[in-house]
Amino acid sequence: MTLGLFDDDQPAAPQAPEWLEPGAVVLRGFALPPAAGLLQAVDAIAAQSPFRHLITPGGKRMSVAMTNCGPLGWVSDRSGYRYDPVDPETGRPWPAMPALFKQLARDAAEAAGFAGFAPDACLINRYAPGTRLSLHQDRDEGHYAHPIVSVSLGIPALFLWGGAQRADRARRVPLLHGDVVVWGGPARLRFHGVLPLPEATHPLTGAHRINLTFRKAG
Ligand code: SIN
Ligand code: FE2
Fold first, then answer.
1. pLDDT tens-digit profile of 102-111?
2. What is the architecture, at CATH level 2, of domain 17-215?
Protein backbone atom coordinates (compact mmCIF):
# COMPACT_ATOMS: atom_id res chain seq x y z
CA MET A 1 0.00 0.00 0.00
CA THR A 2 1.23 3.51 -0.68
CA LEU A 3 0.39 6.40 1.57
CA GLY A 4 0.59 8.98 -1.20
CA LEU A 5 3.74 10.48 0.31
CA PHE A 6 5.54 10.23 -2.99
CA ASP A 7 4.38 11.59 -6.32
CA ASP A 8 5.52 8.70 -8.51
CA ASP A 9 2.15 6.99 -8.63
CA GLN A 10 0.10 10.16 -9.04
CA PRO A 11 -1.07 11.46 -12.41
CA ALA A 12 1.06 14.36 -13.56
CA ALA A 13 -0.50 17.70 -12.68
CA PRO A 14 -1.08 19.99 -15.68
CA GLN A 15 1.99 22.17 -15.99
CA ALA A 16 1.93 25.93 -16.32
CA PRO A 17 2.62 27.29 -19.82
CA GLU A 18 6.24 28.47 -20.26
CA TRP A 19 6.20 31.63 -22.34
CA LEU A 20 9.31 32.14 -24.46
CA GLU A 21 8.07 35.59 -25.44
CA PRO A 22 4.70 37.09 -26.41
CA GLY A 23 3.10 34.72 -28.96
CA ALA A 24 5.41 31.77 -28.20
CA VAL A 25 4.86 29.16 -25.52
CA VAL A 26 6.01 25.70 -24.43
CA LEU A 27 3.14 23.49 -23.23
CA ARG A 28 4.86 20.80 -21.19
CA GLY A 29 3.30 17.35 -21.49
CA PHE A 30 0.36 18.63 -23.54
CA ALA A 31 0.60 15.72 -26.01
CA LEU A 32 1.19 12.98 -23.43
CA PRO A 33 -2.41 11.68 -23.38
CA PRO A 34 -2.60 11.02 -27.15
CA ALA A 35 1.13 10.21 -27.61
CA ALA A 36 0.83 6.47 -28.25
CA GLY A 37 -2.03 7.02 -30.72
CA LEU A 38 -0.07 9.75 -32.50
CA LEU A 39 2.90 7.42 -32.95
CA GLN A 40 0.72 4.59 -34.27
CA ALA A 41 -0.71 7.02 -36.79
CA VAL A 42 2.79 8.12 -37.81
CA ASP A 43 3.64 4.48 -38.57
CA ALA A 44 0.51 4.14 -40.71
CA ILE A 45 1.32 7.37 -42.56
CA ALA A 46 4.94 6.31 -43.15
CA ALA A 47 3.71 2.99 -44.56
CA GLN A 48 1.99 5.00 -47.33
CA SER A 49 4.39 7.94 -47.73
CA PRO A 50 7.76 6.76 -46.43
CA PHE A 51 10.26 8.90 -44.53
CA ARG A 52 12.91 10.27 -46.88
CA HIS A 53 15.90 12.61 -46.75
CA LEU A 54 15.06 15.65 -48.86
CA ILE A 55 17.65 17.55 -50.87
CA THR A 56 18.00 21.28 -50.19
CA PRO A 57 18.01 23.77 -53.08
CA GLY A 58 21.77 23.97 -52.47
CA GLY A 59 22.12 20.23 -53.12
CA LYS A 60 22.64 19.01 -49.54
CA ARG A 61 20.86 15.95 -48.15
CA MET A 62 18.92 16.86 -45.00
CA SER A 63 19.86 14.74 -41.98
CA VAL A 64 16.26 14.85 -40.68
CA ALA A 65 14.01 12.30 -42.41
CA MET A 66 10.61 13.71 -43.41
CA THR A 67 7.14 12.81 -44.55
CA ASN A 68 3.78 14.59 -44.40
CA CYS A 69 0.08 14.13 -43.94
CA GLY A 70 -2.83 16.37 -44.79
CA PRO A 71 -3.89 18.20 -47.97
CA LEU A 72 -0.46 19.84 -48.38
CA GLY A 73 3.04 18.51 -47.72
CA TRP A 74 6.27 20.47 -47.34
CA VAL A 75 8.96 19.35 -49.76
CA SER A 76 12.38 20.48 -50.87
CA ASP A 77 14.42 19.71 -53.95
CA ARG A 78 16.90 21.39 -56.28
CA SER A 79 14.20 23.79 -57.47
CA GLY A 80 13.38 25.10 -53.97
CA TYR A 81 11.03 24.64 -51.03
CA ARG A 82 7.28 24.32 -51.60
CA TYR A 83 4.00 22.85 -50.43
CA ASP A 84 2.75 20.10 -52.72
CA PRO A 85 -0.61 18.25 -52.62
CA VAL A 86 1.14 15.22 -54.09
CA ASP A 87 3.97 13.19 -52.58
CA PRO A 88 6.65 13.46 -55.28
CA GLU A 89 8.01 10.06 -54.27
CA THR A 90 4.77 8.08 -54.62
CA GLY A 91 2.92 10.30 -57.09
CA ARG A 92 -0.14 10.09 -54.83
CA PRO A 93 -1.74 12.59 -52.43
CA TRP A 94 -0.27 12.65 -48.94
CA PRO A 95 -2.08 10.44 -46.39
CA ALA A 96 -5.03 12.15 -44.74
CA MET A 97 -4.46 14.05 -41.52
CA PRO A 98 -5.88 11.92 -38.66
CA ALA A 99 -8.65 13.51 -36.56
CA LEU A 100 -6.43 13.01 -33.50
CA PHE A 101 -3.76 15.23 -35.09
CA LYS A 102 -6.23 17.99 -35.99
CA GLN A 103 -7.75 18.00 -32.52
CA LEU A 104 -4.39 18.18 -30.77
CA ALA A 105 -3.19 21.01 -33.02
CA ARG A 106 -6.41 22.93 -32.46
CA ASP A 107 -6.36 22.43 -28.68
CA ALA A 108 -2.69 23.40 -28.33
CA ALA A 109 -3.15 26.52 -30.46
CA GLU A 110 -6.12 27.50 -28.36
CA ALA A 111 -4.15 26.98 -25.13
CA ALA A 112 -1.59 29.41 -26.57
CA GLY A 113 -4.24 32.00 -27.39
CA PHE A 114 -4.85 31.16 -31.07
CA ALA A 115 -8.44 29.94 -31.27
CA GLY A 116 -9.79 28.16 -34.36
CA PHE A 117 -6.52 26.79 -35.78
CA ALA A 118 -7.29 24.40 -38.66
CA PRO A 119 -4.00 23.16 -40.15
CA ASP A 120 -3.87 21.84 -43.71
CA ALA A 121 -0.28 20.58 -43.49
CA CYS A 122 1.52 18.35 -41.03
CA LEU A 123 5.23 17.87 -41.60
CA ILE A 124 6.56 14.81 -39.77
CA ASN A 125 10.26 15.00 -38.91
CA ARG A 126 12.23 11.98 -37.73
CA TYR A 127 15.53 12.58 -35.92
CA ALA A 128 18.14 9.99 -35.00
CA PRO A 129 21.01 10.73 -32.58
CA GLY A 130 23.41 13.13 -34.30
CA THR A 131 20.67 14.63 -36.48
CA ARG A 132 20.15 18.38 -36.37
CA LEU A 133 18.04 21.09 -37.98
CA SER A 134 19.84 24.35 -38.56
CA LEU A 135 18.31 27.72 -37.68
CA HIS A 136 15.54 28.70 -40.09
CA GLN A 137 12.24 30.55 -40.29
CA ASP A 138 8.99 28.86 -41.33
CA ARG A 139 8.14 31.16 -44.22
CA ASP A 140 6.99 28.99 -47.12
CA GLU A 141 3.35 29.35 -46.11
CA GLY A 142 2.95 32.69 -47.88
CA HIS A 143 0.92 34.22 -45.08
CA TYR A 144 1.63 34.33 -41.39
CA ALA A 145 -1.77 34.88 -39.77
CA HIS A 146 -1.81 31.34 -38.35
CA PRO A 147 0.48 29.90 -35.69
CA ILE A 148 2.85 26.95 -35.89
CA VAL A 149 2.15 24.01 -33.58
CA SER A 150 5.12 21.72 -32.99
CA VAL A 151 4.79 18.42 -31.10
CA SER A 152 7.77 16.49 -29.68
CA LEU A 153 7.66 12.70 -29.24
CA GLY A 154 10.34 10.19 -28.30
CA ILE A 155 13.90 11.01 -27.31
CA PRO A 156 14.72 14.52 -26.01
CA ALA A 157 16.16 17.39 -28.01
CA LEU A 158 17.46 20.88 -27.40
CA PHE A 159 15.34 23.31 -29.38
CA LEU A 160 16.95 26.58 -30.43
CA TRP A 161 14.71 29.60 -30.00
CA GLY A 162 16.27 32.55 -31.77
CA GLY A 163 15.22 36.04 -32.75
CA ALA A 164 14.11 37.96 -35.82
CA GLN A 165 17.60 37.75 -37.36
CA ARG A 166 19.63 34.60 -37.93
CA ALA A 167 22.55 36.04 -35.96
CA ASP A 168 20.42 36.80 -32.88
CA ARG A 169 21.35 34.85 -29.79
CA ALA A 170 19.31 31.62 -29.51
CA ARG A 171 18.01 30.14 -26.27
CA ARG A 172 18.29 26.39 -25.73
CA VAL A 173 14.96 24.90 -24.71
CA PRO A 174 14.88 21.20 -23.76
CA LEU A 175 11.94 19.44 -25.42
CA LEU A 176 10.77 16.11 -24.03
CA HIS A 177 8.27 13.47 -25.11
CA GLY A 178 4.82 15.07 -25.09
CA ASP A 179 5.92 18.71 -25.08
CA VAL A 180 4.26 21.09 -27.53
CA VAL A 181 5.61 24.47 -28.70
CA VAL A 182 3.25 27.00 -30.28
CA TRP A 183 4.40 30.23 -31.90
CA GLY A 184 2.43 32.82 -33.79
CA GLY A 185 1.45 36.48 -33.88
CA PRO A 186 4.49 38.63 -33.08
CA ALA A 187 6.69 35.50 -32.76
CA ARG A 188 5.56 33.80 -36.01
CA LEU A 189 8.77 34.42 -37.98
CA ARG A 190 11.32 33.69 -35.25
CA PHE A 191 14.41 31.72 -36.22
CA HIS A 192 14.42 28.26 -34.66
CA GLY A 193 16.24 24.95 -35.00
CA VAL A 194 17.30 21.76 -33.23
CA LEU A 195 20.80 20.93 -31.90
CA PRO A 196 22.31 17.53 -32.78
CA LEU A 197 20.48 14.92 -30.71
CA PRO A 198 22.48 12.96 -28.11
CA GLU A 199 22.30 9.15 -28.03
CA ALA A 200 19.14 8.03 -26.25
CA THR A 201 16.26 5.62 -26.52
CA HIS A 202 12.60 5.96 -25.65
CA PRO A 203 10.17 3.08 -24.98
CA LEU A 204 7.77 4.24 -27.71
CA THR A 205 10.19 5.35 -30.45
CA GLY A 206 13.49 3.56 -29.85
CA ALA A 207 16.41 5.78 -30.84
CA HIS A 208 14.24 8.39 -32.56
CA ARG A 209 12.61 11.72 -31.97
CA ILE A 210 9.43 12.37 -33.94
CA ASN A 211 8.30 15.96 -34.43
CA LEU A 212 4.91 16.91 -35.85
CA THR A 213 4.77 20.45 -37.22
CA PHE A 214 1.26 21.72 -37.99
CA ARG A 215 0.76 24.66 -40.30
CA LYS A 216 -1.86 26.41 -42.34
CA ALA A 217 -0.12 26.58 -45.69
CA GLY A 218 -2.87 27.04 -48.27
C1 SIN B 1 10.85 22.38 -37.53
O2 SIN B 1 11.24 23.50 -37.30
O3 SIN B 1 10.34 22.05 -38.62
C4 SIN B 1 10.96 21.27 -36.50
C5 SIN B 1 11.29 21.72 -35.13
C6 SIN B 1 11.45 20.54 -34.20
O7 SIN B 1 11.79 19.43 -34.65
O8 SIN B 1 11.26 20.71 -32.98
FE1 FE2 C 1 10.62 25.10 -38.58
1. 999 999 999 9
2. Sandwich (2.60)
